[in-house]
Amino acid sequence: MRKTNLFLLFSLIFLLTGCWDEQLLKYARLEYVAGFDFDESRNYKTTSLLRTISRNLNPPGGGDSSQTLDLVLGTGKTVRESRLSINRAIEGEYDPSKGRVLILGNEAAKSDIYKFLDVYYRNPHTPINSELVVSEGTANSLLEHIIQEESAKGGYLYELIKSAEKNTESPELTIQTVCTYLFDEGKDFVLPYLGIDKEQNKIKVKGLAIFNEHSFTGEVLNPEDSTLLLLFMNKLNKSARFSHRLNLEQNTEVTYNITKMKRSLKIEERDKIQFTISINLDVAIDEYPEDQLDKKKNIEKLNKLLSNQLTDQAENIFTILSETNSDTLGLGRELIAYHPEKWEKIHGKNYYEKIKVIPKVKVNIISSGIIL
Amino acid sequence: MKTRISSFELFFVLLQTQIGVGLLSLPYETYKGVKHDGWISILISGFMVQITIFLIWTLCRRFPHNTIFDFSKMIVGRFLGSVMNLGYIIYFLIVVSYVFLVFTDLIKRWILTETPAWIFLLIGFFILVYGCWGTVKDMVSLFSFISVFILGMLLITFFVFLEPGIDLRYLFPIGSAGIWAIIKSTKDSFVSFLGFETLLIYFAFMKNPGKAAAIKGAISANLFITFFYAYLVIIATIMFSPDEIILVPEPVLYMLKAISLTILERLDLLFLSIWVIVVASTVISYSYLASMGINKLLHLRHKKSVLIAGAFVLSLSFLLYGRIELSKLGKLVTFVSYFFGVIFPAILLVISFIFKKRGAYYEEN
Q: Can you spell out the DSSP letters for A155-211?
């Protein structure tokens, strides 16, 4: 019995494996935002926003911790090497495992972005569920702006993107889900596009950057178009608002929110493969100073006006998409899955050229708030 | 007898033995063979294992309360039987070593990158010895208890459906690989069902091995595993795009890593900690049977045989670690398992049928 107990006690020692792999928080310098650019000689340039929580060990009035942000730069032939050079510049151990946002500079995004992301997929300690965005200028300049102008509240970048997602202005993509798109021949994706608003001197989500295969096409959709595109992608989130100035009557404005949607696809084979995509939107009016929404006739009229507006807008968006050859709706995947024989005919690098999209929007007002 | 196990307990034993290291990479393995039709391949494999279980049962019921270590000698004679028993013992121990190596490699890659390998092998050794120390009944109650954790694993995977990136279209078109390719690929998915061959011994511990009720536990365990595996393959397929999944050797873990809940992140670590328990039970089950064989072959006491089994596994793992490619070892284990799981029992059955060999308690019903 004694022997057995001793044996057990001894074996317990080996369960304490923390000795080798401990990573103490007090030595870690946690990264909050990372930005990727190229420098002049096509080296990878990483700009890292580090969050330092300085603790006063014996605070006079209870626990008090203050947060400061630091900007560190590193360059290298690979992303990993650029991180290594960051590590040389800071005290403690550079730790990117808690990053929330990853910014791709404009030029960087136009190259093969998988080269930047590979290290994220390969290492088990990386934050593959952080947000991926494209910046208007270099990622470095965006982060410089945060440090210089908005240093105190630099932590809002993540929330900024999250709220854009809630308002259906940006897709819910993370580094990991982007990887799915990168390796899918029948799908492309869009990423939020951040820029500095000159007038307010603030960072803003300026719309969506359109990608084709592995790189940014250079085309950007404005926030309102972005929302409509996301609706066509069947990605309605918490809310999706549109405002229009209705041209037919003078100075009539309306704002409405999409509460529910339904999408249907119809495929026909003409000289191109033709997709007729209709979305039915259930809409709640948010703002409409004209009132008189009790009359059926007025509602019908408004329904029609809004439907036409959005259909026109959608046609515009799909022209941009076909120019950039970007299949953000995943129509190629649709063909692979349900019409493999049609896919056989068109598959290839630029298959989207052989696809034509006819968008149709139908708006159906179902609520006008608590007044009519 | 006190050491008898019921059909219900057999369910848990088989569950714990069958679910093992193959679980994490299953979608990857099936994808390499038949692309997105992997789940069909799993269902077919499950069905074939079901037939094998039936075959093993027909063999075992001819020799009630005897394990294969006993009735092999009755069927093919003392010498050949002993050789076969030795083969089974070594096979069981090689499987355990393989599990050790895969486990070590995976933990080293996913969580504890700095920890030296011998630590994991030693931990495995202690768990092996500790788990095998008691009676069969002890082991069975342990397995019944920790089966709760398999439900935990299932629950964690439900979070995948929260991920906005999942795309059902990745499952279509169904059956595009062609029926022949799917059937051929079952040889890759078959290996994850390994563990059913332990029934050659466990049936001997059943109360009424001859009755159809005895097989019920085994059949339902295998059914559960088949659907569990098919489910895992399906969620991995809809989570990853086709060209991506072939880059990810452990898709089940990888997809959990990407999920972020409000209060919880890195679900893969949570899943791994549960998986470790399930792997430990596989190790214990196989080594228990091996030590039972050693016990009968060399006429040693049970605890001594456990130590011999443990020492053999430990030294073999040390010897092989870092010196052999795991996938090669995996292929070898798969190849050998066909003999020990299907072909040998079938041969024994045929011989015992032709020469009308039966155990002492055999009753016709």
A: GGHHHHHHHHHHTTSS----HHHHHHHHT-TT---EEEEEEEETTTTEEEEEEEEEE
Nearest alpha-carbon partner for B10 in B151, B105, B140, B107 = B140
Query: Do the Cβ atoms of A179 and B244 come within 8 Å?
Result: yes
Q: What is the percentage of chain A residues whose pLDDT exceeds 90?
A: 30
Residue B191 has pLDDT above 90, yes or no: no
Q: What is the pTM of this model?
A: 0.89
pLDDT of B158 higher than 60: yes
Residue A297 makes CB contacts below 8 A (sequence gap 6+) with: none
The tokens for A195 are: 């820029």
A182 touches chain B (CB under 8 A): yes
Interface check B243 vs A, CB under 8 A: yes
Whether residue A131 contacts residue A161, with contact meaning beta carbons closer than 8 Å, is answered with yes
Please tell me the distance in Å from B173's CA to the nearest CA on chain A.
5
pLDDT tens string B283-299:
999 999 999 999 999 99
Of A125, A206, A133, residue with least CA distance to A173: A133
Tell me if A180 and B244 make a contact (CB, 8 A cut-off): yes
Q: What phi and psi, each to the nearest 5 degrees, are found at residue B103?
A: -60, -50
Give chain A's mean pLDDT: 85
Of B239, B243, B258, the CB nearest to A183: B243
Q: Chain B within 8 Å of A347 (Cβ-Cβ)? A: no
Give Cβ neighbours of residue A97 (< 8 Å, ≥ 6 apart).
A30, A125, A126, A127
Inform me whether the C-beta atom of residue A95 falls under 8 Å from chain B C-beta atoms. Answer: no
Nearest to A27 by CA among A100, A95, A123: A95
Whole-angstrom distance, CA of residue A39 vs CA of residue A218: 19
Rounded Cα gap, residues A100 and A156, in angstroms: 11
Across the range A273-280, mean pLDDT stands at 92
Residue A70's SS3 state is strand
Cβ contact, residue pair B110, A124, below 8 Å? yes
- Helix or strand or coil: residue A284? strand
Residues in chain A: 372
Distance from CA of B255 to the nearest CA of A (A): 9
What is the mean pLDDT of the segment spanning B242-263? 86
CB-CB neighbors (< 8 A) of A93 in chain B: none
Q: Check CB contact under 8 Å for B173 and A15.
A: no
